[in-house]
Amino acid sequence: MILPILIHPDPRLKKLCSPVEAVDDDARALGNAMLATMYDAPGVGLAAPQVGKLKRLFVMDCADKEEDPAPMVLINPTVLWSSEDETTHEEGCLSIPGMYEDVTRPAEVKVAFWDMDGAEREEHFTGLWSRCAQHEIDHLDGVLFIDYLSRMKKSMITKKMQKLKKERASA
Ligand code: NI
To answer: Is residue 101 flagged as an active site residue?
Structure first.
């Protein structure tokens, strides 16, 4: 099932999401639908609030195009450690289509989470995986990548998105 993706600005993208209480059939169905939605978009990450579910869950697959797909569903993720080393790289977001800006973040993170079997796991992420995990965890706290930009840049992007939403609504 492909879920509709919310476009910024939307109050649901600014909420603090609540923990997933159990990895049950509902949580697994949401994880699978979000993976399908992410691949369809296409994107490398998608957080539950982007499909209107205010739960602490996100999906990602940052495997190279030449590699096999490596879908991940991370439930109740917490950052255990971030490197002092930072990197700056262009980011985009399925809720802010067509907009790409540089964001500086810790280069590496260690994240604890539950997987789709309800098992507790820890992963050390580097490169694009690390950037994507941090971007998606931000979503669970109501934070968007444009929140790291200057107020002027952010308001310019928000106006573009308002216009896009108006165009889509009248199409
Ligand atoms: Ni995003």
So the answer is: no
Span from the CA of 25 to the centroid of ligand 1 (angstroms): 25
- Split into its structural domains, the chain has a count of 1
Beta strands in the chain (DSSP E): 45-47, 57-60, 72-82, 86-93, 96-106, 109-114, 120-125
User: From the DSSP assignment, how many helices (H) and strands (E) are in the chain?
Assistant: 3, 7
Check 21, 66, 86, 136 and give the catalytic one: 136
Does the residue 50 lie in any domain?
yes
- How does pLDDT run across 32-91, given as a tens digit for each residue? 999 999 999 999 999 999 999 999 999 999 999 899 999 999 999 999 999 999 999 999
In the reported structure, the alpha carbon of residue 93 is separated from the centroid of ligand 1 by a whole-number distance in angstroms of: 4
